[in-house]
Amino acid sequence: GFCKLLPVLDALTYLGARDNGITSAGLITVMTSTQMIQLQCLDLAGNQIGEPGVHALTERFQQEHKRSLWNPKQLTSTIETVNLSNNDISSALAASTEAFLKIHNPLLTVIW
Predict the structure, then answer these.
(1) Going by C-beta distance under 8 Å and a sequence separation of 6 or more, which residues neighbour residue 87?
(2) Average pLDDT per block of 10 residues along the chain, 112 residues long
(3) Are residues 31 and 2 in contact, defined by beta-carbon separation less than 8 angstroms?
(4) DSSP structural state of residue 37
(5) Are 33 and 56 in contact (CB under 8 A)?
(6) Would you list the DSSP string of 85-106?
């Protein structure tokens, strides 16, 4: 399901995919692709995303942030906000990810 959106992610600025049964596996597939992601807001509230999906998401956008510091022309993402509320994410994982993002991707806001 979610992976089928890969071809259009370079054309969207907002993707609302609430309550669609998206799992960590689906999110990992999308986040590890080389497809350009032009999204400014990704709403994944109410899905089944757990720790592996959170790690894939933060790794992808951390790489994007590093790439933009060295060469803005290599930037393949403009993400600003990700909504992960009502997923399988513990408060401890949310807190540690938030601390990580403040250092490695301060422009990304995650709604837990």
Answers:
(1) 44, 45, 46, 47, 48, 49, 50, 53
(2) 85 92 94 80 96 92 66 64 97 95 84 96
(3) no
(4) B
(5) no
(6) TTSS--HHHHHHHHHHHHHH-T
